[in-house]
Amino acid sequence: MSKIWWTNKIRKTLRKRREELGVTQVDLAKKLKWSQAHVQRHENGHADSIDIKVLRKWCGILDLVATYIPAEIDIVTSEEYHDNSMMATADLPTEIQ
User: Residue 61: how many CB atoms within 10 A of its CB?
Assistant: First the structure.
């Protein structure tokens, strides 16, 4: 299980997108096979890391793409991902070594 740092930028982006789509924490938790409290802890900044596979699934649920920029993780909409400005980045790897 590979984990990455759960940054404020990631947390805020995911929460904002969830709210924009009208997805509740309960609905998200069911899809992640987590409790609502676990989702809430992550969104409120009470977690310091997240498994990469879970992050990819979370992004997929919210129609986002996690990209890996050396030493930085960025999350963008699928539309932004396919924009030419994203060409220099790579998809988030399944495992970070």
Answer: 17
Residue type, 55: L
Q: What is the pLDDT of residues 2-45, one digit of tens each?
A: 877 788 888 999 999 999 999 999 999 999 999 999 999 999 98
Q: What are 41-63's pLDDT values in tens digits?
A: 999 989 888 888 899 999 999 99
With a CB cutoff of 8 Å and minimum separation 6, the contacts of 42 are 6, 11, 50
User: Helices marked H in 1-97 — which ranges?
Assistant: 8-21, 25-32, 36-43, 52-61, 78-81
Tell me the three state secondary structure of residue 91: strand
Kind and range of the H or E run holding 61:
helix 52-61
